[in-house]
Amino acid sequence: MSNNKRIAIVNTATTFDDFKAKEALDLALIFASYEVPVAMFFMADGVFQTIKQQNPELLGSKDFISTFKALGFYDIDDIYICLDDVKERGLNCEFAVDNPQLLSRQQFNQSLNNYDIILTF
User: Fold this and answer.
1) What digits encode the pLDDT tens for the residues 99-110?
2) Residues 71, 63: Cα–Cα separation, whole Å
3) Taking the mean position of all CA atoms in its chain, how far away is CA 90?
């Protein structure tokens, strides 16, 4: 399926903000299951989604963040996190995603421009 357009899913919302984060993750997995090239981008408050130690049960939510472990199984290996946004929010932690690429804002935007379709959540 090499004729598929490359899709970037940009996460800008916090982990439990109106289900946007879960919907973005579900969409990425759906595209990948049809062998559509997809990448995950995390910027602005979306960087909070990448924090490993989260307790959604305290909010009465399900732990969908653990699903990030399945991204590699679906061949979603292109995971980008805006390092500037991580620093601005004072985050210094382990990430819930495997082998993310931490990029400056400029590098992040340049990488995003390599995709044909950009979906923002």
Assistant:
1) 999 999 999 999
2) 15
3) 19
- Is the confidence at residue 1, as pLDDT, over 50? no
Look at residue 20 and tell me whether its pLDDT is greater than 60: yes
Taking residue 29's Cβ as centre, other Cβ atoms within 10 Å add up to 16
Q: How many CB atoms lie within 10 A of CB 118?
A: 14
* Domains of the chain: total: 1
pLDDT value of residue 54: 73
CB 44 within 8 A of CB 72: no
56-84: pLDDT as tens digits: 666 666 667 778 888 999 999 999 999 99
Residue range(s) defining the domain that contains residue 63: 7-120
Q: How far apart are CA 10 and CA 79, in angstroms?
A: 10
Neighbours of 36 (CB within 10 A): 15
CA–CA distance, 15 with 45 (Å, rounded to integer): 8
Domain with 96 in it: what CATH number?
Answer: 3.40.1260.10
Quote the CA–CA distance of 41 and 72 in Å, as a whole number.
Answer: 15
